[in-house]
Amino acid sequence: MSRSGADLALLLLAGFRTLADRATAELAERGHEDVRTVHDFALHSILSGADSVSELARRMSVTRQAAAKTLAVLEERDYVARRPDPADGRRTRLRVTDHGLALLAQGEAIFDELREQWEEQVGASSVSALEEALRSLVGDHAIRLDAPGWSARDPDVP
């Protein structure tokens, strides 16, 4: 059994991928086919204030073209809508629809279910100890839900 730092990093990434992939599969079973992890990041970005394609791209650390493509999918599925900017008629603002909010709520419930499954597998105290150890190593606010890129911390904060 390896104890290298690289193996630890890969194991942590595998834990994330396992949970994200299982949640995505469960969302598909519940009627949200073709939802991807990036859609969750985009929805959280919009909820936290990204109200234009440019701002969505910046918050997600992707190109404007990639953000526009993600947005088009979310609009097509009625998770996001554009509304006119009351202060500037030339602009439109993004908003998460009720359908999008329902998707996020279902996703959160699924992650709670997955956590319970892990607790059944290894014990609630082991999952809590893992969570506390990670929190102590990376801090309470280490990851922002609106930043899926490698720069998971706010680039404006040192």
Outline of the structure:
The chain is 61% helix and 9% strand. The protein has helices at residues 5-29, 37-47, 53-60, 64-76, 98-122, 124-138; strands at residues 80-85, 88-96.
Mean pLDDT: 88
Helices and strands, in order, run as HHHHEEHH
Stretches where pLDDT falls below 50 for ≥5 residues? 150-158
Please give the alpha-carbon distance between the first and last residues.
36 Å
Give the strand tally.
2
Strand order of the largest sheet: 1-2
Note the overall shape.
elongated
The proportion of residues in beta strands is 5-15%
Radius of gyration: 18 Å
Helix content: 55-70%
The number of helices is 6
> Which sheet architecture does the biggest sheet show?
2 strands, antiparallel
Class from secondary-structure proportions: mainly alpha
What is the element layout, followed by pairings?
Layout: H1 5-29, H2 37-47, H3 53-60, H4 64-76, E1 80-85, E2 88-96, H5 98-122, H6 124-138
Antiparallel strand pairs: 1-2
Helix pairs in contact: 1-5, 3-4, 5-6
Plain-language structure description:
It is a single chain. The chain is mainly alpha-helical. 61% of the residues lie in helices and 9% in strands. The protein has a two-stranded antiparallel ribbon with strand order 1-2. A hairpin with a 2-residue loop joins strand 1 (80-85) and strand 2. Helix 3 (53-60) crosses helix 4 and helix 5 (98-122) crosses helix 6 (124-138). The longest helix has 25 residues, at 5-29. The protein is elongated.
